[in-house]
Automatic annotation (TrEMBL):
It is found in: Cell membrane. This is Flagellar motor switching and energizing phosphatase. It comes from the Bacteria. Its main location: membrane. SUPFAM superfamilies: CheC-like, Surface presentation of antigens (SPOA). Residues 34-70, 133-166 form the CheC-like protein domain.
Length: 371
C-alpha cells in the first residue's frame, strides 16, 4: 500500500508543477524586454563595481558574469532552493526608496570570512557563526556602498544604503521574516556567477521587488508617455511642468545633460540646462621677470607630462593582467595630478575637458623648481 501512496515531498512537487504551468507565461509578461534589459545593465554596472571592491578586500581576482534577469515568486524560490542560504538585506536610505536581498551560499560566506581572517586553510565543514554573518555584512556594506556610488552616477543623484543585515535562512523562513519575500507579487531575480580564483565558483542572487525594479527603470528612462516639450506651451512652462512631475528626465536628457539643482534653477532659469564653470582667478600671482637672455632658449621644446598616479606591482601580477583588469593607483578621487617638465616636477593640476580633448588646469606651481 505504501507504493500506491505519494509522499508529502512528491505532492509538493506535483503542486509546484501545476503552479508553474499557470504562472510560467504570466511571469514572463510581467516586465517588458526594455525593463529586463535595463535592469540587467543596472545590475551589470553596480555588481561590476562591487566585484572590484571585493577583489580589493580579499586581495584575490574576482570575476562576476553578465547578469541573468528573471521573474519569479517567493513560492517558486522556496521549491527551487530548499537549502539554507545567507540572506543579506540591503535597504536604500537616500535616492531610491526600497530594498533588495542578496542570497549567498553558506560555504561561500565561510570562505570569504576565512580569507579576511588571514587563515592559511579554508574550512567549509565548520558551523556558520556570528563572526561569519558579521564579516559578510561588512563585505556587503563595502560592496553595495561602492555599487551605490555607481548608481549615483547613472541616476544623476546621490544614492546611499543603510548598513546591511545578514541572516542564515531558507526561502521558506524568509517568507515570514524578510519584507521582499513576504509578498505574493512577482519578484525580479537577477543572477550572477561569481568566481574568486580557484576558491569560489557559484551563483549570487539579487532579489528585487517588482515595483522597486520598475521604479528604478522609470527613474532612469523616464515615463514613456511624458514628453519634455508639449505642444501649445512655452519653453518655460514645459520646464516648470517637467520639474513638477518629479519623474526625472527622459533617457535622451539623462545621457546628454547634467541634473540641475533647485537652488540654481531659481536663481538663473535661462541657464536651466548648462551651468558655466567658475574658476578662481590667479591675478594675485606675483609677476616673474626674466632678463633678455631667456629669449635664447625660448624655442627649445620641453615635454610636459601629467601623471595620473603610480603603483608598484610584482612581475608575476603584471603577467596576469588582461582586458578588464583594474589597477589601483596611489591617487585618491579628486586629488590633484602631478605635472612634469622633462621629468621634473613643476606643478599640480586638475583634469578639464576642452571640446573633445582632455586638458590639465594648473592649480599649484612648484616654486622650488629650478629646471
Amino acid at each position: 500500500m505504501d507504493k500506491d501512496m505519494l509522499s508529502q515531498e512528491e505532492i509538493d512537487l506535483l503542486l509546484k508543477g501545476t503552479e508553474d504551468l499557470g504562472n510560467e507565461n504570466t511571469n514572463e509578461q510581467v516586465i517588458t524586454e526594455i525593463e529586463r534589459d535595463t535592469l540587467g545593465e543596472i545590475g551589470n554596472i553596480s555588481m561590476g563595481t562591487a566585484a572590484t571592491t571585493l577583489s580589493t578586500l580579499l586581495n584575490k581576482k574576482v570575476t562576476i558574469t553578465t547578469p541573468k534577469v528573471e521573474v519569479t515568486t517567493a513560492g517558486e524560490l522556496s521549491y527551487e532552493y530548499p537549502i539554507p542560504f545567507v540572506a543579506v538585506d540591503v535597504k536604500y536610505k537616500e535616492g531610491l526608496e526600497g530594498s533588495n536581498i542578496l542570497m549567498i551560499n553558506i560555504d561561500d560566506v565561510k570562505i570569504i570570512t576565512d580569507i579576511m581572517m588571514g587563515k592559511d586553510e579554508i574550512d567549509t565543514n565548520r558551523e556558520l557563526t556570528e563572526l561569519d554573518l558579521s564579516a559578510i555584512s561588512e563585505v556587503m556594506n563595502q560592496m553595495m556602498g561602492s555599487s551605490a556610488t555607481s548608481l549615483s552616477e547613472i541616476f544623476l543623484k546621490r544614492i546611499d544604503i543603510e548598513p546591511p543585515k545578514s541572516y542564515e535562512i531558507t526561502f521558506s523562513e524568509g517568507r515570514e521574516k524578510l519584507e521582499v519575500l513576504k509578498t505574493l507579487a512577482p519578484i525580479i531575480k537577477v543572477s550572477f556567477k561569481m568566481v574568486v580564483e580557484d576558491l569560489i565558483d557559484s551563483e549570487i542572487m539579487q532579489l528585487i521587488p517588482l515595483d522597486f525594479g520598475q521604479q528604478m527603470v522609470e527613474n532612469l528612462m523616464g515615463s514613456p508617455k511624458d514628453d519634455f516639450v508639449e505642444d501649445g506651451k512655452t519653453e518655460e512652462e514645459n520646464i516648470n511642468s517637467f520639474e513638477k512631475t518629479d519623474k526625472g528626465p527622459s533617457k535622451e536628457i539623462v545621457q546628454k545633460t547634467p541634473k540641475v539643482d533647485k537652488e540654481y534653477e531659481s536663481e538663473n532659469k535661462e541657464h536651466i540646462i548648462i551651468k558655466k564653470p567658475e574658476f578662481e582667478t590667479f591675478d594675485t600671482t606675483a609677476d616673474v621677470s626674466y632678463n633678455e637672455s631667456i629669449d635664447l632658449v625660448g624655442d627649445i621644446p620641453v615635454e610636459l607630462t601629467a601623471e595620473l598616479g603610480r603603483t608598484v606591482k610584482k612581475i608575476g601580477e603584471i603577467l596576469e593582467y588582461g582586458p578588464g583588469t583594474v589597477i589601483e593607483l596611489d591617487k585618491l578621487v579628486g586629488e590633484p595630478l602631478d605635472i612634469y617638465a622633462n621629468g621634473k616636477f613643476i606643478a599640480k593640476g586638475e583634469v578639464v575637458v576642452i571640446d573633445d580633448n582632455f586638458g590639465i588646469r594648473i592649480t599649484d606651481v612648484n616654486n622650488n623648481y629650478t629646471g
